[in-house]
Design goal:
By secondary structure, this protein is an alpha/beta fold. The protein has 19 helices and ten strands. Bound molecules: adenosine-5'-triphosphate.
């Protein structure tokens, strides 16, 4: 019920279309209800009328036939079209609106959500769950409610024919509704389990498809298949239970609803024998009782769709309600220009709220200078960049830009000042030019080429089959790690932000390209603030200041020369790397 309340605002946006659909439905369903009354008139009044002549009777019969023909073909048929067209159009629009909102939610989610949930599971909500709502809306808005209206009308008409027989029929049908309702609760809880498991299954399959090549390399295909078999077996056990319950509902309710007309006619026959009911009335009654089966059948058949739809709605609204921790303040300021410094003031942070990955770090990153973070793997270097970009918020202390806590700035204005290249750069399945242009959507082709030149990407791009128009990614050419990195660098050159964050940005390049790209970065260094992370210390020796991170703490800092003089961890690391590089060269 809760999910229906949340869903209603969407339904309200399509009020007009639903209203038209409902009017269409009323005509489409109510016109057939006149048939039993006409039949009764024919039996009781026309056929048995001894006053009217044969030709009068034929005349009346033809007139009635003409009216019925008109009602069915000139009203009911167009109304059926109106009903189908407007209701389905309203349903489609609601589905589109839900998809748009779900996608907007994807963009507002924290990094933590993506780290904790598989993309396949998120995708299931977007496609599978939202699609399930179509069946739910059809059942609820197109079928069930109109059947209930029909039911009320049928009961009203039956009351005019014979109240006692009507009461018996209503009790019998009421019992079927109660039974259907009780069984629907069971179906709903099973459906929830099935749908939750389906998203686990699709998350698993998507991940294994992405990792299929790794499975080959590690010969873990057999293990993958066994895991998948396990998931599929479990899933099919759940669906077996679901279909079993649905079959039980259908069979038990249907047998009752099939038997009801006969029972009512048998009792009605007693009334006819006693002279309390005319034969025409009994025939009309039979037709109406038979008509009562429609709503019950519609309800029973709609149960799985309604159950699936309400679980799907619940899952979608749960997803929409996922709390966002990295939030923008209502009165967020715009960071117009980075003027002075980024400051970490006694910052601590843990991804899981417990184990500190950044521990009481205080640093100052001044405008126009180059800084580097070095240290052992897992020491917290990338996390520092995550905190500057506000992918995560600090637990203690503050990150300030130009003296203001970054939480006070709008996310857009903060991120406009930042350009990021990481170890793992993402390219969309589109052309190279579009991939670079995402950094500045209104950039001219000449600007894109200029940025690619600075990133030493221009040459390899022009060698590709379609140059800058070559499609990359899943459906296009595959780029090497180094080529991808250069595209990512080109994005940063194009964006031309005040602060450049480079996380192992040249690690996938060969020595020659690395030197060239380093030269570009150094050129950039005169005008920009650069924060880089590098394992290879030779790439950071020119930094104005190097921070050595270990277990989330800054253990040493200074420029390369000063750090060597400290004779500490940095010097140790530097010497070791130098020796291994020399050994490699020999
Ligand atoms: N999204 C995450 N959720 C939970 N823990 C994380 C997450 N990302 C990183 N960590 C953990 O935080 C710690 C610091 O990771 P971080 O990536 O900052 O290290 P790093 O110094 O950049 O390492 P490397 O040099 O290997 O890239 C590691 O122990 C890592 O396991």
């Amino acid at each position: 019920m809760n999910e229906l309340r949340q869903f209603l605002p969407y339904v309200r946006t399509q009020k007009k279309l639903y209203l038209l659909g409902f009017i269409g439905s009323l005509f489409r369903f109510l016109i057939p209800l006149s048939v039993p009354l006409v039949v009764k008139y024919l039996f009781d009044d026309l056929l048995r009328n001894e006053v009217l002549s044969r030709s009068d009777k034929i005349g009346q019969l033809l007139l009635i036939a003409a009216i019925m023909l008109g009602a069915f073909f000139l009203i009911r048929a167009p109304m059926e079209y109106v009903r189908q067209y407007f209701l389905n159009r309203a349903n489609n629009r609601i589905i589109t609106a839900l998809r748009k909102d779900a996608f907007a939610k994807v963009h507002s989610l924290d990094s933590k959500y993506f780290a904790d949930n598989r993309s396949g599971e998120i995708g299931t909500r977007f496609f599978d769950d939202i699609e399930k709502i179509r069946g739910y809306m059809t059942a609820l808005f197109s079928n069930v409610w109109i059947e209930l209206v029909v039911l009320v009308c049928v009961v009203g008409l039956m009351l005019t024919l014979n109240p006692e027989l009507t009461l018996i029929a209503v009790l019998l049908v009421g019992f079927q509704f109660v039974l259907a309702h009780v069984l629907s609760r069971k179906v709903k809880s099973t459906t929830r389990t099935v749908m939750n498991y389906r998203s686990v299954l699709s998350g698993f399959v998507l991940e294994r498809i992405q990792g299929a090549l790794w499975s080959k390399l590690f010969q873990s295909e057999k293990r993958d298949r066994e895991l998948l078999d396990g998931h599929l077996d479990q899933y099919s056990r759940m669906t077996d239970r679901q279909v079993g319950l649905q079959a039980l509902s259908l069979s038990s309710v249907n047998v009752l609803s099939d038997f009801t007309p006969f029972l009512v006619v048998a009792i009605g026959s007693l009334f006819v024998i006693d002279g309390r009911l005319t034969l025409g009335c009994l025939i009309a009654f039979f037709a109406y009782v038979d008509r009562m089966r429609g709503p019950v059948a519609a309800l029973v058949q709609a149960i799985p769709a309604i159950a699936e739809g309400s679980v799907a709605l619940q899952r979608i609204f749960d997803f929409m309600a996922v709390p966002v921790t990295v939030r923008e303040k209502d009165d967020a300021k715009t960071l117009m220009r980075f003027e002075d410094a980024i400051v970490f003031d006694r910052v601590s942070f843990a991804y899981n709220g417990r184990n500190r990955v950044i521990d009481d770090v205080s640093i100052r990153i001044e405008r126009g200078k180059t800084y580097a973070f070095v240290g052992e793997s897992g020491g917290g270097k990338s996390t520092i960049l995550q905190l500057i970009t506000r992918m995560y918020d600090v637990d203690h202390g503050e990150v300030l830009i130009d003296g203001t806590n970054i939480k006070a700035y709008s996310l857009e204005s903060l991120r406009t000042q930042l350009g990021v290249v990481t170890q793992d750069n993402f390219l969309y399945s589109t052309s190279i030019i579009e991939n670079i242009r995402m950094a500045k959507p209104d950039a001219t082709d000449a600007e894109v080429v200029e940025a690619a030149r600075k990133a030493f990407a221009h040459d390899f791009i022009t060698f590709l089959p379609n140059g800058y128009e070559t499609a990359v990614g899943e459906r296009g050419v595959k780029l090497s790690g180094g080529q991808k990195q250069r595209i990512a660098l080109a994005r940063v050159f194009l964006k031309d932000p005040a602060i450049v964050l480079l996380d192992e940005a040249t690690s996938a390049l060969d020595n020659e390209s690395e030197k060239l790209v380093q030269a570009s970065i150094e050129r950039m260094a005169h005008t920009k603030t650069i924060v880089m992370i590098a394992h290879r210390l030779s790439t950071v020796v020119h930094a104005d200041r190097i921070f050595v991170l270990r277990k989330g703490r800054i253990i040493e800092s200074g420029d390369h020369k000063a750090l060597l003089q400290m004779n500490g961890y940095y010097r140790d690391l530097y010497e070791k790397q130098k020796q291994s590089e020399q050994r490699g060269a020999e």
